Amino acid sequence: MVSVGLDIGSTTVKAVVINENNKIQWKRYERHKTKQIEKVAEFLERITSDFGCSFRLFTTGSGGSRIAHDIGAKYFQEVNALSFAVEHFHPDVKTVFELGGQDAKFISWRDGKGKFSTMNDRCAGGTGATVDRIIMKLNLSEDRVSRMTYSPDKIYPVAGKCGVFAETDINSLQKQGIPEEALIFSLFHAIVEQNLAVLARGFTPEPGVLLLGGPNVFFPALKDAWEERLFALWRERNTPYQDISDNCIYIPENALFYGAYGAALLGCMENESTYIVNNVSGLLRNAELKKKSHLKPKKSPFFRNKSEKETFYKSYSRRTTAQYTFCGRKKIDVFIGIDGGSTSTKGVLLDSNEQVICSAYKLSEENPLIDARDILIELKNKAEASWSEVIVQGIGFTGYAKDLLNEAYGGDTAIVETVAHTLGALKYFPDADVICDVGGQDIKVIILSEGTVKDFRLNTQCSAGNGYYLQSTAERFGYSIDEYAETAFKAEYAPSFNFGCAVFMESDIVNFQQLGWKAHEIMAGLAKVLPLNIWLYVVQEPNLSRLGRVFILQGGTHNNLAVVKTQVDFIRLRVKEAQIYVHPFNEVAGAIGAALEAKRITHTASDPLISHEKRGIEKTKFIGFNSLSDINYTAKRDEETRCTFCKNNCSRTFITIHSGESSRKYIISNCEKGQAQNGSELKKIIHNIEKKRNNAVNFVQISNKEAFRSYSPPVILHKFKKNKRASIKEAVIGIPKTLNIYSTAPFFGTYFESLGVKKVIFSDFTSEELYRKTGGRGSIDPCFPSKVAISHIYDLIYNKTVTHIFFPCIRMLRDEIYTREFHWACPVVAATPEVVKAAFTLEKNEFFERQIMYFNPVLDMAELDVLERQMYAEFKPVFNISKKENKKAIQYALNIWNNYLYELQTKAEKVLIEIEKKGDIGIVSLGRPYHNDPGINHGILNQLNKCGYPIFTVESLPREGFVINGLFSKELHTLYIQDVWPRSFSENTSLKIWAAKFTARHPNLIAIDLSSFRCGHDAPLYSVIDNIFNQASSPYFTFHEIDENKPIGSIKLRVETIDYFLKRLKEEALECKKSSLAV
Amino acid sequence: MQKVLFGGLTKAHEILFKGFFKHLGYVVESLPEPDNEALKIGKIYCNKGQCNPVYYTAGNIIKYLFNLRNRGEKDIDKNYLFITASSYGPCRFGMYETEYRRALKEAGFGNLTIIALQQDEALLNNLKEKGFNLSRNEFFRLLKPLILADLINNIFYKTKPYEIISASMDKWKEKSLHKLYQALKGGSSLVKPIRQLKKDLDHIELDYFRTKPKVKITGEFFSQIQEGEANYRLLGWLVEEGAEPVVEPITTWLDYLIRGKIHFTRERAFRSRANAGKIILTISILKLYIHTVYRLYRFLFGNKPDLLTSQKKLAEYAKNYYSPKLMGGEGHLEVGEHIYNIKHKKAHMVISVKPFGCMSSTQSDGVQTKVAYDLKESLFVSVDTSGDAEVNFKSRVLMKLHEARIKATMEYETVKKRLHLHIDNNDIERLKAKKSDIKKASLVLPQQGTSTAVNALYFISS
Fold it and tell me: What ipTM is given for this predicted complex?
């Protein structure tokens, strides 16, 4: 009797039939397109017709367990099935990487140490699902991707840890004009990095690597990416390996079927008379029916009856009332607005009375330049159907690609999306209280009060992709986005999704499919979860009535009536008297805002000598419709375009825009300096930056300079005997520039210097390059600041010459905030030195190999007497110091530390007094000490400083003196926070809250709340900080969930929005009621 | 009098606590087991980015209060009081109280009294301030139902996988809890009912010769002790999958905190030896009391439940990997348990369960790879619970469980050979017949190997 192995995955079904000799007789690999059971039934019917209706059946894969249970087959977990097949075919193989739809697996056979296997955690970042989504997003065919030849020179930073993060990065890069091929290579590179980082758990994958699973088989470029990275890793870790030609990394024949084959082979070890199934397809159908009977507890249709549906359609289906009335004039003056969004490009023409003449919409196909050109031509053609001549008075751009488009087409303004959407909505609904704009990638919720903006919420990268998510899911199910609503409306039942993360929703879909939910029901469930994502996850306001009464829904996603219906239901349930409108031009509201801004810009400075008609023509910088067809571009990113203006030597992309015979260059770079092409341009840029920076002190930079310098304390010499001195004199102490070292470095640096060590060296600041070098060394995935500590220790071991590494587990921090409890440090931060130690001693002791001693004592900075004993206990055996010497060194260190803080805070006090006098605005960075690290804060603070705002840190805010006494005069204690935060045991958390109180009370300060992704101590603070600023009616902005990837587009959007509103705030001389603008 | 609401422990603990408080005259309601609906409600009313226990527990109390409101109850804020565990340590567990308050406020129960029990000496005062006046004696007595529930759970999970008559152990557990509840409620002696329960165990038949891998559950405390959706019914599911789960008593957590407190005080003893001595003495008395009660009740159960593992030993094992001085969460406890259970052949496999994004537990996982590598014998898997993705969670457990099964089978076969036993010639059956106790659920098998079946083999051949 034949045995069947079925591997039922999240996206595909694989089957093999083997005979008694374990030879494959039949095999199939097909995508099930969400119809998992149907596909399994189809396969089994085919097997029945070829091999008879009786066979033994064994399953594996994420969907295998349930189906096996339903039809009496035997299920084997996929890693076990896979490794069994590998052991059978390739006894010499040492490592397997298998990529599936949602799962990634790593199996390692280590000589004498048995088998080690891991699977990815919940986040399905580096898997086939991510590849599928990105390929779909880039409008590429699988065939084309499979023909690409990998090039490691074309790699751009893409986050591989999360599908949504990757999508955000790819989106941003695409809008910068990066070619598709380079995007795919960057994605493959990121996937390899991610799998090495998460799956290998710090082990070195040994040569003899088997690559299995769909993505590895179908995309040779992915295999190349594996090879490039693994060879580099082996070289770096001195792992002996054969030449590339010796096939030490390879994809075997039948690489798609190892799971299925392994299940069948394992099945052969079961009793011969077991797991025989007959008439399987009938069984499957029965199982399906059985499931359905208990699946759906209660009906949840969109409409209770027909009339409710009709009323809804009457109110919210697309209207035609907003059409332009043609006047029959021969010429018309127009203002153009173009919104280069994440998934589509939109355009609009307004007449001089701000009426919409026509609009155009296009899903992103090619480069944003080409997309925008097509839109402009379409707008022109539409307008010219009614008028003989269209005279452009002004043109404005918004959206991700606004700067590039502005440069290419001669824009009059490039306006940030948040502002554009607000203007576009207020034009039609001046009494709006809440504008909810849901685009392809972004969710923007703008809260207004009497026509002025009061509050902002933008989604972080974490919940991005909602609009596009609905679209791509529908397409996967075989529906176009236009069919979404009607399809979803058919559902009488809907599965209940968890809100918050698109990737988690993706795994929900897999679960629901396995449970037997149909496509239209899943689509209904997705539409129903969207309001939860918007209002509870992004806006974080369960009580919507607090926001207002008039809600405006706009953005392309609100074309989907299923979404509108769930939004209306959600809002109505919470705000009884809500008025909910869909913007009449919901898709192009942003473009309308851009056109309105273009009109304002080109027509504000009126010149009486120029006629109205001429004024626009002469003022607009638009290149003209006639030049559009000539526009072309080339992109270049190589060693030639690399920036050489600082030691970072960042890669840059030069986009040359050709228009007829002329051409202009647009440079995509990481900073302003990179915009220069030569020395004189650089001088100009630096001059401009310096001009802006005048009077804009940056305490982040000051701290970063002062904290890590040597204070040359007196060396405790006379106490040492000669033989004692030798070990100290030669000691070079390496300290990683990371975590709480940012607030304690002057203390530790001075302690060692005063003991007379040769030198104290700190690692470099975090950078992409530094982090990349240690990919695959960590065994867990905590917050980035903790994870990157491994890179800093690596830097000290391999790039610096040190004899000792000191990385203390700081358990308690310096006591500043008044509390009845202790002054604990974050447990993740405190334990990081232990995790780092494990990473560098896992397979071999790298400290020992490099003759470096590693010290990570547990220290309590808050209790000096305890600290003294802890340091003594640690260093007495090493340097043979006496108690007295230790005590003295501690005292010196403390004095220097106190002086450092005193100087910093005195200087900050002076600046605070000054900005108050001048009526300027200063920004306080509400973060943890390590948010001073430019590699962790992603340069956000620096960018704001370049806009002319002084930047303060929590550490720099004065703890005593004139300023603080003025702000906290009524408090029991100037460092008291128990009124807002009773559980003040986490010192950095307490300091952050205190700084929030300080900032909210100071008339010239606004706050930027920085929080790293997965920060457990920050999560409970979100609402506390929000309340502090709301109660004070003081502005604050948030950058939550910042992580290792640097979403340049999203950061830029926020920085520009902040700059825009702060400028407005300043223009109003801070007299207006300060508003809370949380972006 | 206000009704006291509490929850978040196992069913056994909740029933016995209820009996205890009823005896003291308090009206006590235990919240139902947190389910995924509670998780969803929690996500709506809590800040984003919290760990699961917050969502489950906050969502659970809100769900319960919503039900009361829907039933038409008035003045819920005034009539109810919520007691929950808290901490002063560095883990965000200590911040839960603030989060509960916020969530309850958002859900419309802003005035509900919450008592967050801190794990320190202020506990009694804290209770007193809120009108919950427990004497020191009563506080000590509170530990009895806790320990009893631990013992019942321990017996249940080590016998359930071997029951011959389906659900016989479930019935025993139910009966035990009922009897002990009545005894606690009536304030009568617990010795008699425990003896009776032990006798009941004598009458339940088990087949100890089923070769099942022993799976030690460790990790974040809330997640590991749950019996419901908060960890995908892990314990029950493991039994269904043919494993014997080795569960951790909640008393271990107290023991762990006590060790931490003593160590912390000792580090500061140089300031005032007298004061430190006083504190250490007080805590040591508490520790002695806990261990004495545990051993006494264990004895009354015929020494069937496992002993508490020495915290000193666990810290000793863990210290080379994860400093026991690092406080907050379960830190070194997980590492120590991993090493202890493998070294002392207490389990074939160790599962560390944690909520998605758990702070301390994630960090201790950072060293577990090295621990597993150094131990060689270890089968370790770390899984996180997020309320969804059950398939993903169980698949990762199954990945290792398969290897654990093989390990258990190999161990059984090896021992059989070593003892010259052959199933074919009915050796086992013959020896079984000689040992009349071999089917009794109350039987204590001396540990010589890892699996229960192997210990049974040694037992019959002894």
Answer: 0.93
